[in-house]
Amino acid sequence: MKNILECSLPPGGILEDFFLKRVLKTNKILAEFEFRTKNFIQNQKEALDQIIERNEGTRWGRDHKFSRLNHKNWNSMPVITYEQVEPYMNRLRNGDVYALTNEVPEALALTSGTSSTPKFIPLTESSISNQKKGADVWNLSLRERCSKQVNKILILSGGSRKKKLEILPVKSYTDIVKAKQPGYVQKRMIFSKEVESVSDLEHRLLIAAQQAFIRQPTLLISVNPITILKLLELTDENRAEIGRATVKGKYIGTDINTGEIKNKNTILGNIFSKNPLDSLKFIGTWLGGTQHLFIDELKNKGFNIPMRDLGYMATEGRFSIPIEDNTPRGILNPFGHYYEFAELNSRNLLPIQELEQGKEYNIIVTGENGLYRYDIQDIIRMEGRYNEAPIISFMRKDECFSSLMGEKIHENHVVELLKQLKTERGFLIARTDPPHYELTLNGGGIEKIKPELADNLLQKINPEYAQKRENNRLQSLELNYLEKPTFDNLDKRINPNQEHDRYKKKYLVPYGKLEEK
Q1: How far apart are CA 274 and CA 282, in angstroms?
Q2: How far apart are CA 482 and CA 480, in angstroms?
Q3: Which helix (H) or strand (E) holds 459?
Q4: Which of 89, 174, 256, 291 qualifies as a FRET site for 18, CA 20 to 30 Å off?
Q5: How far apart, in whole angstroms, are the C-alpha atoms of residue 147 and residue 144?
Q6: CATH topology classification for 401-516
């Protein structure tokens, strides 16, 4: 992997280069990134000591005796989940602003709740700053890659949750950073401020499609590739409405003016005949975990352009920084977090220097946002190193797992099965009496698959499943075809939060989980 300091900033205009280097001090950001990755292990110790010392006086710090802790005896602090954080979060929401952090949070972020109950996470000045540094490195490496091709940017995101709690607003990290972008970046964003108040995701996507026809973006940022596919689907269903709104000079479904539209006749012709994203040169989106089904679908629709993973990130923080195209691999973010990794079977915690390439681990994080030794319940794979910093890729949520008889099936297995069966719409559902799995597929217009073919493929994908089939502890895979309306209803039961732009599609239903929904 190329040294990040070798990424010289290409000409983007004299004024822009001056602003980046002299005002934003981008060379300093890249130099700090390089220094921190070269001294990653020592910097991790210093980061942890700083977080502990800063937060000694918080309610959490006093209750967990932070005054006696440092990186040498951090093991005495228990690994936690949100269950332990929630009482302190409730105190914060009721006015105890120092319950979790030594800084009064600017806002609270709310997780999407697509894989569990939504959780509140404090957004402090320090945590926002550290996330932004990671984003700056991503942006600068992308600028080096394709500066002249990405002069117009379309960001697909859900609407702001303009909600206020007892004392703090609920915002996303994206909301806060968008508002702080320098003017030259704001001018390149084509989703107008005037329509930011539209909160319905489908309505926002229709407006985004209309703006894409009018302004022809070259870079698309969408956390979730499903959102891009949804935009294309909605465009096909609403071309006439998009066209009528454009003729009127209004954003679809609003009374807001689009402003002057040059070449209106050409644009109207494109609305009725072309893909709204034909102008794209580059896409930033999730590439890891189970997303490759949707990436393949985008490629089948003609999107054979470079893509860059946005990084392993969540409401809880940004944890990796990809600087290469077409891979989910990213450098562990050296800004602001302290990381620990747990072996999957033993739950034994390992220092970073003992991570083995190719192995999977649970990631445990400590940061400036009130999460201390927090099990985010994600599984990552160690892919290599950049200087001393691990290179990781996100694999799956820890809970996306089923094991009736010790077969250890997880969602990556199911996605690979669907890919080999050449379908992206299906679920693997665990059943008992007798113990077996049911593969439920959308039966609308697809060629029927033989159950034994699917069963044999799953055995090849997962040798432990094959072993349980060989000794008859598991019965053969059952296939169930549903007509599209029935399948769509089941999809909504399994994946109830599909209107969210960070919606994480589930493909595996462990025993009993379907009945609970």
Answers
A1: 18
A2: 7
A3: helix 451-461
A4: 174
A5: 6
A6: GMP Synthetase; Chain A, domain 3 (3.30.300)
How many CB atoms are located within 10 Å of the residue 94 CB?
12
- Cα distance between residue 498 and residue 161, in whole Å: 16
Sequence-separated (6 or more) residues with CB below 8 Å from residue 348: 342
CB within 8 Å of 15: residues ≥ 6 apart: none
Per residue in 308-349, pLDDT (tens digit) is 999 998 889 999 999 999 999 999 999 999 999 999 888 899
- SS3 string, 10-54, reads CCCCHHHHHHHHHHCCHHHHHHHHHHHHHCHHHHHHHHHHHHHHH
Task: State how far the Cα of 110 lies from the Cα of 316, in Å rounded to an integer.
Answer: 9
Six token digits for residue 23: 């005002």
| Band of residue 478 on the pLDDT scale cut at 50, 70, 90 | very high
Q: In this structure, are residues 104 and 98 in contact, taking their beta carbons and an 8 Å threshold? A: yes
Six token digits for residue 123 = 């957004």
Within 13 Å and on the Cβ side, how many CA atoms surround 408? 9
Distance CA 394, CA 362 (A): 10
By C-alpha distance, which of 350, 392, 507 is closest to 442?
A: 507
Give the three-state DSSP class for 50: helix
Owner of token pair 């077409």: 326
Domain layout of the chain by residue ranges: 1-110+324-398, 151-280, 401-516
- Name the DSSP class of 334: -
| 2-16, 59-73, 166-180, 477-491: the lowest-pLDDT one | 2-16
- Phi first, then psi, for residue 27 (nearest 5°) are -60, -35
H or E element in which residue 441 lies: strand 436-442
pTM: 0.81
